[in-house]
Amino acid sequence: MSTLTAAQRRERDRAAYDAFLAACPARQLLDRIGDKWVSLLMAALSDGPMRYAELGRKVAGISEKMLTQTLRGLERDGLVTRTITPSVPVRVDYALTPLGESLGTVVRELKRWADTHMDAIAAARDAYDTRTPGA
Amino acid sequence: MSTLTAAQRRERDRAAYDAFLAACPARQLLDRIGDKWVSLLMAALSDGPMRYAELGRKVAGISEKMLTQTLRGLERDGLVTRTITPSVPVRVDYALTPLGESLGTVVRELKRWADTHMDAIAAARDAYDTRTPGA
DNA sequence: CGGCATCCTGAGAGATACTG
DNA sequence: CAGTATCTCTCAGGATGCCG
């Protein structure tokens, strides 16, 4: 039977699309750098290695949970290294890998586009909001 | 008094940081293109103008709500145009603006990095998961 | 056809408290 | 110092149904 409701069809399509998206490299990359803390942490580390608590202070608003979670993710992806020095108060340093620095370069290109064009976007936004005053 | 609890200090810091982030162009851009549907929709539109329902079919898994919502956001930011043809069944076409195409170029650069380096990330991920088998 | 209002659920963000 | 564990709660996003 081709008797599929719109909902059923969409569900099937979504499953197929999800598989496609999971395999899409660009999608994975966007998910990573789109993460609120990833870019901030990497920017902080681009100045050189830092300790756990230093990062927590530098990025200010981050909770310990997200700090740990994000760093773990970055470590897993080979973007940062985690170096444990087993002194009496343990010391843990995080640093960018070459891969991480490479990604940092790309992100900075993105930032350059942002710096050049975001005022145009802001202007468009203002114009739009003026055109659509109430709602 | 400097008698602030850790929570109070963090809250104050977060407020300040939120303000900083809201003003940061790069952050705004990342929030945009990090959105699951934005890049997909823009990729679809890079082939030329499309109608509402066409987009819905091309992007397959998207719900009508997200389709409308995302398109509105892109229109507001001056990245796409929305053209209404008041025929009897209404016809609405969406197309990239020059600004939108410019952004598309940047995103494609990002995609190039992804295509070149995501296998390294996947490898790092595998290695990490092997090193950390149980948990 | 194209779109908005409404309700509802689940993933994920943060606070808190405890451990090596 | 550097986490881990647990709980709560928000809110993005999907389903549904109605309008122009």
From TrEMBL, chains A, B:
InterPro entries: HTH_HxlR, WH-like_DNA-bd_sf, WH_DNA-bd_sf. PROSITE patterns: HTH_HXLR. This is Helix-turn-helix domain-containing protein. Residues 24-122 form the HTH hxlR-type domain. Keywords: DNA-binding, Transcription, Transcription regulation. The keyword DNA-binding applies. The keyword Transcription regulation applies. It comes from the Bacteria. Pfam families: HxlR (PF01638). It comes from Yinghuangia aomiensis. Gene3D superfamilies: Winged helix-like DNA-binding domain superfamily/Winged helix DNA-binding domain.
